[in-house]
Specification:
TubC_N_sf; TubC_N; two-stranded antiparallel sheet; Thioesterase; alpha/beta; 46% helix; 346 residues; 10 helices; 9 strands; Rossmann fold; 7-stranded mixed beta sheet; Thioesterase of type I polyketide synthase or non-ribosomal peptide synthase like protein
């Protein structure tokens, strides 16, 4: 990665993906990182781009004080702005690769749900979360048109948000749902477990196909290395996520101090899952574009065709057969999904 040519939001997103934390303490830029994560290249870039990073963090902090849920991933451009709801974990940077691939003329804002900032409480109803987002969008951009997007379980909140804005007279040009999981998936534990199992099996098949397509052993080993680093990060995150619970139960005595950020994220995930499980979508007459990673996803436990019950006019767009569903918005699949979005816009 050529960090020198990378935009500041993308650079910070890349650091966050490697568990490298960067923040402001007064006027000073602070950084913490796991052993070995902060390479010489990253250290040089942090030093050389210090003033840019401080400026961006100050701008983001100022925006957050006014509309704390709106995170500008790409704030510039002349196209209709996209406001996107992430999955149940509330990870706004899951849209970073897609926002970058859509280009400099496409404004893209991610919506961070309440409950992550330490000042607000997570909400247990999709309708309440949609109301929260609607107020901030209308304050941030009083006049439309808007494009509302949702990813994975965030599709339910995006669906309700688009309806709510439309009921208030705002022009919602399109509702874009990426790999949407229908609420009915969450209403039966057996169905949810089946869906999760299919996702894991699909991941194995995906990587076997990738390996079979590799032109050389060197490329194959590089692919395995990339996957191993990704899985290592996921395992560390899952392990960290259990620590607050272990500390609460006394399983590790005084050795573990709960990380408040991880505790808030864990609580948000549980609350968001409950909210989607309780939600029943009703009829929507606006334009809906549903982007699936591939045609096989139609038969997945996500039950994407159930959205036709309340939006029979929905348009479906399919990514390539090789697209890996759970990471469809990230590299290397982000360019394919961005092209599908451009097709729908045309």
């Amino acid at each position: 990665m050529n960090t020198a040519a990378t935009k500041i939001p993308d650079f910070l997103s890349d650091l966050a993906g490697r568990d490298i934390k960067v923040w402001l303490e007064g006027s000073q830029l602070r950084c913490s990182a796991p052993a070995g994560a902060l390479t010489a290249e990253f250290r040089d870039q942090l030093r050389e781009r210090k003033s840019e990073i401080i400026g961006f963090l100050n701008m983001a902090a100022a925006a957050a004080r006014q509309q704390p849920s709106i995170v500008p991933l790409q704030p510039h451009g002349t196209r209709t702005p996209i406001y996107a709801v992430p999955g149940h974990g509330g990870v706004v940077f899951s849209f970073s690769d897609l926002a970058k691939r859509l280009g400099d003329d496409q404004p893209f804002f991610a919506l961070e749900p309440p409950g992550l900032d330490g000042r607000t409480e997570p909400m247990e109803r999709v309708e309440d979360i949609a109301e929260y987002f609607a107020r901030q969008i209308l304050e941030f951009q009083p006049a439309g048109p808007y494009i509302i997007a949702g990813y994975c379980s965030g599709a339910s909140t995006a669906f309700e948000l688009a309806k709510l804005l439309g009921q208030r007279g705002a022009e919602v040009e399109c509702l874009a749902l990426f790999g949407p999981v229908h609420p009915s998936t969450y209403q039966a534990a057996s169905r949810l477990m089946f869906f999760q199992g299919k996702r894991r099996i699909g991941a194995v098949i995906h990587h076997l196909r990738k390996a079979a397509a590799m032109p050389s052993m060197e490329a194959f080993l590089q692919h395995l290395g990339d996957r191993a680093r990704y899985l290592g990060t996921r395992l560390r995150n899952r392990s960290n996520g259990l620590r607050p619970l272990l500390a609460y139960l006394g399983a590790e005595g005084d050795k573990v101090k709960p990380d408040p950020v991880l505790a808030r994220r864990s609580r948000l995930e549980a609350t968001a899952t409950t909210a989607v499980r309780r939600y029943t979508p009703t009829s929507y007459q606006g334009r809906i574009c549903i982007f699936l990673p591939n045609k096989a996803w139609v038969r997945s436990g996500a039950r994407p065709l159930r959205w036709l019950d309340v939006a029979p006019q929905a348009e479906f767009y399919y990514g390539p057969k090789s697209c890996y569903g759970p990471l469809m918005l990230q590299e290397p699949d982000a360019p394919s999904i961005a092209e599908l979005y451009r097709q729908s816009a045309r």
